[in-house]
Amino acid sequence: DSLWNIWQDNSKADTSRLKAIYNFAMYGYLDDFPDSAFYFGQTQYNFAKSVNNEKWMAKALYLQAISFDNRNDVENTLLYLNKLLLIYEKLGNYIEIGPIYTKIGIVYRGLGNYEKAIDYFHKNLELVKKLNDETAVANACYNISIIYIDQLNLEKALEYSEKALIIYKKINDKS
Q: What residue spans of the chain are helical by DSSP H?
């Protein structure tokens, strides 16, 4: 109720209202009512666009993409993830681009399109290397190893698993 009240209060700052409707949809609807989450995401997107706030437009697109993913609508999941990717690229928000590459890779893996999946996992790997994010590099190597396992290319799977393991040990990630 409090998030909805913030969203409805026109005297609140635009970013406060956008954050409120995002959280309202994300935590109140996304898992159990993805159609409603999409609706609120569209409402958020429209408002963010009207106030020229691309950051919150992107967050709305993410919410919508995940709502499609939760409904197993692969075509629209990819459509919205790619729209989101365009905004993050335009904004130069490379920290957010990596996870989107990963999510797209996961979707393609689910489709059995290992070539596209590994392509997106490699895009993520190259990006997170530039960002010097060791945890993300290890995770990207691990994701790549999974695709190689799926393809029964065990030599490559082992190569990337070992790369991930070395980094996980270095950063003391015991999981």
A: 2-8, 14-28, 34-50, 54-70, 74-91, 94-111, 114-130, 134-150, 154-170
pTM score, whole prediction: 0.90
Tell me the C-alpha distance between 139 and 96, whole Å: 15
What the block records as the tokens of 50 is: 């009207």
33-55 pLDDT, tens digit per residue, is: 999 999 999 999 999 999 999 99
Q: How far apart are CA 119 and CA 2, in angstroms?
A: 43
Alpha carbons 155 and 5: distance in angstroms, whole number: 56
Residue 128 Cα distances to 17, 43, 51, 111, 132, angstroms: 32, 32, 31, 25, 6
